[in-house]
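User: structure tokens for this one?
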Amino acid sequence: MPKETSPKSPRGEPSINIIGAGIAGTWQALLFARAGYDVTLHERGDAAMTQATSHFAGGMLAPWCEGESAEPIIMRLGIRSLDLWREQLPDTPFNGSLVVSHPRDRSDFERFARLTTEHTRLDASGVADLEPSLDGRFREALFFPGEGHVEPRNVLPKLHEKLTAAGGTIRFEAECNPDELDGIVIDCRGLSARDRHPDLRGVKGEMIVIETPDVQLARPVRFIHPRWTLYVIPRDDNRFMLGATSIESEDTGVSVRSALELLSAAYAVHPAFGEARILEFGAGLRPAFPDNLPRVVIDRNRKRISVNGLYRHGFLLAPALAEMTLAYVQRGAIDNEVMQCS
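Assistant:
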């Protein structure tokens, strides 16, 4: 890194400008600030972050469950991220994940079991012990004890607070171009970075938030569905997020078909969800490259770094990718599976 061309912090490190205060950019900013760098995080939206992809995310930290369909690199980075979540936010709930199905979908359930690891099989009494609300609902389940989950709309402000406590600066309503900033610039703009990465695409993920006091869950429950796996994620105040769709569309509306399938599947998990109150429909566009894998791209002068393509694994991958970028800036470390030079 050419020292003479990069502004320095009082400790001598180059200054770090990060664009995008969603989950990817925030983890980058936090780890660099904790390492002693002069960090500024730029975000075009306001502090509520209601337009960010993170606002519509599930927040599941489930690398072993993702092994059912994702590449091995997702599991590797995801497992490392679990440790970073524990280090930086020790109160992150790690209550595991539960995977269930009805008998008619037994073959899909067994396929999920074959393609994943680090789970134990539970019988009906084991399911009831873990989740009393599901007593009598399912004959068996897969329990992934090492997994966790966060509530994105709560945890992102916590990470922002930790960033400022570590000496970092956040500038909201500050849209900027990477070429206009000094020092090392880390571009975490998601789909807005298509000016640099034209092969990025948006993959729509739809979600519904419901409220009922009649079901209590301590962990995310994945329900094997003939078309896709529904997840029911517990939130505070008797709320639940329903999600699962990954649609090749950049429309941000929720379709009638998706809403019906999500709500019907939730009812199949527990009939009490049929009486729940619907609080919100929403959809976010996840940035994805053609292979659905993340990329950390470093430009020739080593002062512009792009972190993008987290697809539907943003909260799972962001900590490990931030650690990777920090290791590159500090000592030139390269992870050949993820990093490339432009």
